[in-house]
Description:
By secondary structure, this protein is an alpha/beta fold. It has a domain at 2-182 and 233-263: NAD(P)-binding Rossmann-like Domain (Rossmann fold). It contains eleven helices and 14 strands.
Amino acid sequence: MTVLVTGGAGYIGSHMVLSLLEKNFDVVVLDNFSNSSNTSIRRVSEISGRRCELVAGDIRDKELVKKVLMEYEVSDVLHFAGLKAVGESVEKPIEYYENNVGGTLSLCEAMKEVGVKRLVFSSSATVYGDVEKMPIDEDTPTGNPSNPYGRSKLMVEEILKDLVISDSSWSIALLRYFNPVGAHVSGRIGEDPQGIPNNLVPYIAQVAVGRLDFLSIYGHDYPTKDGTGVRDYIHVSDLVEGHLAAMKKISESPGVGVWNLGTGRGVSVLEMIKAFEKTSGRKIPYRFVNRRKGDVAECWANPSKAESDLSWKAKRNICDMVKDTWNWQVKNPNGYS
Ligand code: NAD
Ligand code: UD1
């Protein structure tokens, strides 16, 4: 049984590929390296001691995707490929819709033509928009995401639901990630943002290692426990275990399922800084600045549906997340380069 991992050279995809290889799946990665390089996959092969097929190409190239599906006798597709920078999506909406929505349409057409009908899609908690009541469960109506990136995730979810309505032999999992952070325990693969990081944890890691001078905290007047934004950070290794559980589930029952992948715990920006200072032994200088446009005060999951349906639960706590992020950052101060 071969699993196609689109975007498998990226941050989450590379952790997924490692986990699949360790579980004895055969894996083929399709990645256009627009936000990655083949170094991550080389390291994944070194850690696992197993070979992973790597195809350099684009999910929007339907003929290539069909060729890969047939040649490697693919049974399941884990679909991570896409663009993910919120700010950039506001500047370049066409590129985001073209890649994230158009790319998924093209991938599904190829799968349909070849008869591969099991798909796990990387969605995001951003589809809920601004929710008042925490924690967020899957019955919470999807909201109005504040940017093209978020809207592209919502559009793809709707398209995939329609696909299952039209043909009930598809099996699709829509996984709504909360805030993935951390790195593989080896410290050999991890998140390697290009340029200045947008997200909190990679930013703090770069301050701690001395690449950046201080953290700007976006707002300290939110109605939260300490005035700073609260999120549900989830270790990337727990996240990939959630995918394995979802793959198993959809192989047993066709249809479409939606699951939150989060821990159910909310952590504030100040709490994250404190955890990082404790683990790294470094001071994290910070300044309070205005709120970031489009940010919500709080966002954390009710993950109980994933626990009851998939028998999956996040096991790693905030100390594990920070320890593994720091280990990766210290061993690779400049990422993969
Ligand atoms: P990433 O940018 O590290 O990985 C995405 C990979 O897809 C990259 O290797 C990139 O080169 C590749 N890619 C992009 N467009 C492609 C295309 N058209 N054809 C082939 N390859 C292409 O991102 P990530 O953090 O690993 O995220 C993976 C998925 O999870 C994305 O769909 C993202 O939107 C989603 N997601 C991520 C987060 C997060 O915080 N990281 C949160 C929620 C959802
Ligand atoms: C961001 C994305 C969201 C995506 C999610 C996935 C934005 C606006 N939203 O959400 O679409 O689904 O990542 O992980 O980018 N913070 C600071 N200073 C910083 C960076 C962040 O104070 O330099 C704060 C933020 O205000 C927020 C918290 O840290 O309260 C987490 O921010 P971030 O890591 O960017 O994640 P999200 O805002 O949840």
